[in-house]
Amino acid sequence: VQAERDLDLSALRIGADARVPVERLREVDAIPRLAARPHLVRVLAENGRLDVLQEICSHYEALKNEREGVVEAEVISAFEMNETQVADLVARLEKKTGRRVKARVSVDQNLIGGVKVVLGDKVIDGTARAQLGALEAALKA
User: Alpha helix locations (H) across the chain?
Assistant: First the structure.
């Protein structure tokens, strides 16, 4: 189901006290991610509760990933990674976790070098800063 694969709520301007008139539901229903759930969106809009829509989608995505054996990984790199590097890293993470990995890659130019991976509540810090810190701790011991 393609509608369940894409999470894009950027078309909605959801504020703390969002109240979307029923006339704007056509715009809301056009979002591919939510097209399969128009009744949910309509009920939330009619009750002035669109402010919780992103949270509902986040929880739904987490439950869906858990059921499908997918883990989301946030990959933070010091430099831009090409497709081959990302595919290699994903393959290693999948081997390590035994689950399919969906990676989001970002660049943090504050890092000296290396990669930091966040998998749920686990952090694999392969940055130069972390390695230098471990070396410093080992030398002080």
Answer: 25-29, 38-46, 53-68, 83-97, 128-140
Alpha-carbon gap, residue 44 to 88, rounded angstroms: 42
Please state the pTM of the whole predicted model.
0.60
| CA-wise closest residue to 126 among 140, 136, 112, 141 | 112
Give me the percent of the chain exceeding a pLDDT of 70: 73
Count of beta carbons in the 10 Å neighbourhood of residue 40: 14
CA dist 33 and 61 (Å) reads 11
* Beta-ladder partners of 122: 119
Residue 33: CB atoms within 10 A of its CB come to 17
**Unique residue bearing structure tokens 């969002």:** 18
Among all chains, which residue has been given the structure tokens 């966040």? 118
